[in-house]
Amino acid sequence: NAGVTQTPKFQVLKTGQSMTLQCAQDMNHEYMSWYRQDPGMGLRLIHYSVGAGITDQGEVPNGYNVSRSTTEDFPLRLLSAAPSQTSVYFCASSYAPGSRGGYGYTFGSGTRLTVV
Amino acid sequence: TQLLKQSPQFLSIQEGENLTVYCNSSSVFSSLQWYRQEPGEGPVLLVTVVTGGEVKKLKRLTFQFGDARKDSSLHITAAQPGDTGLYLCAGVQVGSEKLVFGKGTKLTVNP
Fold this sequence. Notes:
The complex is a heterodimer.
Chain A: E1 4-7, E2 10-13, E3 19-25, E4 31-38, E5 42-51, E6 54-57, E7 64-66, E8 76-78, E9 87-94, E10 106-107, E11 111-115
Parallel strand pairs in A: 2-11
Antiparallel strand pairs in A: 1-3, 3-8, 4-5, 4-9, 5-6, 7-8, 9-10, 9-11
Chain B: E1 5-7, E2 10-14, E3 19-24, E4 29-37, E5 44-49, E6 55-58, E7 61-65, E8 71-76, E9 85-93, E10 99-101, E11 105-110
Parallel strand pairs in B: 2-11
Antiparallel strand pairs in B: 1-3, 3-8, 4-5, 4-9, 6-7, 7-8, 9-10, 9-11
């Protein structure tokens, strides 16, 4: 049981480049989310999805796009990378809150992105 | 505006001491969760609390959800160096689908 798999683990981009961070889960979780973690800022929600075909914005969505074509996959696209997007990105998944007693999220190991 | 305020932000104690970390909000939550994160890794769920006044114990860790479901606390008894890490509270507001996090408490337990 792999849990939540994120690729790549490390990435360096030049300003203006685009890329996709991959996230896959094998637990049949309905909910999936993307967070970024910056020093002193905690984890901030970028986008989330409550099921295949349904996505919504979080606290810091600008510069990022998502799609959820399957239950398993939730890729995060950086449209035109900027130095302000240098961060550690975490993907997480969960059963629907309250559906099974308020289960928490399972997190991937993160993607460390540097934009130069 | 930070929806969930954690305190203290940093905590450095000696092995064997007790400590409490607080997570406060003016909003009501359908659930509050506590995670622990070690350097270079993703957060790992410790506990979820969903009922006002609920108390859960995990070995030397005790978690409490406030009666009004607006706050939570994490108490560690007889801390050990292995407890060192970043402790994060997170919650889902009533009527929301989003899990939002506090900024975390960085705990260091010195031998």
